[in-house]
Automatic annotation (TrEMBL), chain A:
SUPFAM superfamilies: P-loop containing nucleoside triphosphate hydrolases
The protein, known as: ABC transporter ATP-binding protein
Residue ranges of domain ABC transporter in the record: 5-251
SMART domains documented for this protein: AAA
Family: Belongs to the ABC transporter superfamily.
UniProt topology in membrane: Peripheral membrane protein
Subcellular location: Cell membrane
A cellular component annotation (GO) from this entry: plasma membrane
GO molecular function: ATP binding; ATP hydrolysis activity
Pfam families per record: ABC_tran (PF00005)
Alphabetical keyword list: ATP-binding, Cell membrane, Membrane, Nucleotide-binding, Transport
UniProtKB/TrEMBL annotation, chain B:
Protein name: ABC transporter permease
Domain ABC transmembrane type-1: from-to ranges: 90-279
Region (Disordered): 1-22
Name of one Pfam family that matches: BPD_transp_1
Record GO biological process: transmembrane transport
TM regions (residue ranges): 30-50, 93-117, 124-146, 152-171, 211-234, 254-278
Entry keyword set: Cell membrane, Membrane, Transmembrane, Transmembrane helix, Transport
Keyword Cell membrane (UniProt): yes
Cited InterPro entries: BP-dependent_transpt_permease, MetI-like, MetI-like_sf
High-level lineage: Bacteria, Bacillati, Actinomycetota, Actinomycetes, Micrococcales
GO cellular component: plasma membrane
Family as reported in the entry's similarity comment: Belongs to the binding-protein-dependent transport system permease family.
The keyword Transport appears for this protein: yes
């Protein structure tokens, strides 16, 4: 089975020649759930940005990022624009800053609808309302008329999810989507994400420093450190005791801090 | 303020959004500024159709007279009515302010957006040009333009607008660069929005409040600059009225008829103050960081 999205020997260098990502490879199958964990600065977020060609100015990516066999790294800007949001969508860490403060939530959700699906006027508004209900926002009428700062953190991240799923992408890159939320809201958003992935069949790449959080939604696991992939495994295997010493350290640390449960998610039958 | 008590949600649960406050009080500076500028604009408009005396009417020969029933503002050394001159000057001052704002705005925003949102070498080139322009004295620029085009209201507008555009360009560039680093711009790119879409949908609206304030301040500065230029004889030539030239003409007779200097001086202060207050008020109204309900 060929992967839907595969990252192959991805390297990112700064203009001064520092290597930030060194030969990162992983793949995501259609409907797959991949977790990418690592400490701060391990390059996990950078990997997600590099996939969509969103690296900050001065950074250069080499290697291959294949979406259905098309290399996104060599795609011309216009074609890449048609992939972003439509084929591969992204959710960011801090929903307050990831939403434009001067634009109503409704207009922000209809943005991608207009761009990729050509929906306008009432058709776009109806679709925005449907998406808002999809991400379990209540009182959608009022929320769509609100500005981001008028919403709670959980509501904002639901809005961001609605925007990301607006064009029924095949891949959803989630970059620490729950890190900025408090614990109870975090649990709600994770459950929602879990549910959305099940219902829409979108393939999920979930980036987080937080192993217990990753363990809730992901099945496969990539462990990163210092811009390299330390281990590719499954969540179940990692929790049972990973191959690499660093993975075992991560699991032990997570257990010590949060009391990470021994795998309760019934390990998918022959996970590998 | 009854709407406040009813609009506050009963439970302060985290999921409850903040209430929207529609009826916000206007900032006092906005009101005062708008009134002052409105007053000057009204006087200027009236002067287009009616002034107590014609601008070149030397009347019955009462020169350097103080305020009287016939001449509320007194007369100048040629016997012309000061109030009429002042009224006509108001129109000119506001025309210069608005036209300079337009020139500086169009030039400055274009250069600033290009510098802030494009590749490095464009940025560096444009910035050097802007630095050069900032270092270039407005007066010298005005003299150059007057030499080429002759002294007129519009020469003053071009001089003030072009030199003002340098500041606008810098402010625009900094703010464009700041907004482009915001997460919501990255998010917009991630959603497939192109360069132009990002600039028009996100960058310009988020930069606009700051720019509007800058433009208003520039308008105030333009009134001052126009007064200086016409004081030096580089502004609108007679018989067009200009506050700066009124000041210059009154300089030698200030001890005999002080009103000739005081009235245009007050007119300039009121107009500049009005424009600056208006700028402040607009900022208080539109800047999300200064909104009272945060």
């Amino acid at each position: 089975m060929t992967a839907l999205l595969s990252v192959d020997d991805l390297r990112v260098e700064t203009s001064t020649g520092r290597t930030l990502l060194d030969g990162v490879s992983w793949s995501l199958d259609a409907g797959g759930r991949l977790g990418i964990v690592g400490e701060s600065g391990s390059g996990k977020s950078l990997t997600a940005l590099a996939v969509l060609g969103l690296l900050p100015e001065g950074m250069r990516a080499t290697g291959r990022v294949l979406l259905d066999g098309t290399d996104l790294l060599t795609l011309p800007p216009r074609a890449l624009g048609r992939v972003r949001g439509a084929q591969v969508a992204m959710v960011f860490q801090e929903p307050l800053t990831a939403l434009d403060p001067l634009m109503t939530v409704g207009r922000q959700i209809t943005g991608p609808l207009r761009l990729h699906r050509g929906l306008r006027g009432s058709a776009a508004r109806d679709e925005a309302a449907r998406l808002a209900r999809l991400v379990h926002l209540t009182d959608t009428e009022r929320i769509l008329r609100s500005y981001p700062w008028q919403l709670s953190g959980g509501q904002r991240q639901r809005v961001a999810l609605a925007m990301a799923l607006a064009c029924e992408p095949r891949v959803l890159l989630a970059d620490e989507p729950t890190t900025a939320l408090d614990v109870t809201v975090q649990a709600e958003v994770l459950d929602l994400l879990d549910d959305l992935v099940d219902r829409t069949g979108v393939a999920l790449a979930f980036v987080s420093h937080d192993l217990p959080v990753v363990a809730r939604v992901a099945r496969d696991l990539v462990v990163m450190r210092d811009g390299r992939v330390v281990e590719r495994t499954t969540v179940a295997d990692a929790l049972a005791g990973g191959e690499a010493a660093y993975t075992r350290d991560l699991v032990a640390a997570a257990r010590a801090v949060t009391g990470l449960p021994t795998p309760t998610r019934t390990a998918p039958e022959d996970a590998r | 303020m009854t709407d406040l008590t009813t609009a506050v949600p009963a439970a302060t649960g985290a999921a409850e959004p903040r209430p929207r406050r529609r009826a916000r009080r206007l900032p006092p500076s906005l009101v005062v500024g708008a009134v002052l500028v409105g007053l000057v604009a009204l006087v200027g408009l009236v002067s287009l159709v009616w002034t107590p005396y014609a601008l070149d009417d030397t009347g019955d020969g009462a020169r350097l007279a103080g305020p009287s029933a016939a001449h509320w503002g007194g007369t100048d050394r040629l016997g012309r009515d000061l109030l009429s001159q002042l009224m006509a000057g108001a129109g000119n001052a506001l025309v210069v302010a608005v036209a300079s704002m337009v020139v500086a705005g169009v030039l400055g925003v274009t250069v600033g957006v290009l510098a802030g949102a494009t590749r490095r070498w464009v940025d560096v080139t444009l910035l050097s040009a802007v630095d050069l322009l900032i270092a270039f004295p407005t007066l010298l620029l005005a003299m150059l333009i007057v030499t080429v085009r002759g002294a007129s209201l519009w020469s003053a507008v071009w001089a003030i607008g072009i030199s003002g555009s340098a500041v606008i360009a810098r402010v625009t560039r900094v703010n464009v660069a700041r907004v482009l680093r915001e997460d919501y711009v990255t998010a917009a790119h991630a959603a497939g929005t192109g360069w132009w879409g990002t600039v028009t949908r996100h960058v310009v609206p988020n930069v606009w409040p700051t720019l509007l304030v800058q433009l208003m301040l520039l308008g105030g500065g333009a009134v001052l600059a126009e007064a200086s230029l016409s004081y030096l004889g580089l502004g609108a030539p007679p018989p067009q009225a200009s506050w700066g030239r009124l000041l210059q003409e009154a300089q030698s007779t200030m001890l005999v008829q002080p009103w000739g200097a005081i009235l245009p001086g007050v007119a300039i202060v009121v107009t500049v103050l009005g424009l600056n207050l208006l700028g402040d008020g607009i900022r208080e109204r539109t800047d999300p960081n200064l909104r009272g309900d945060r």
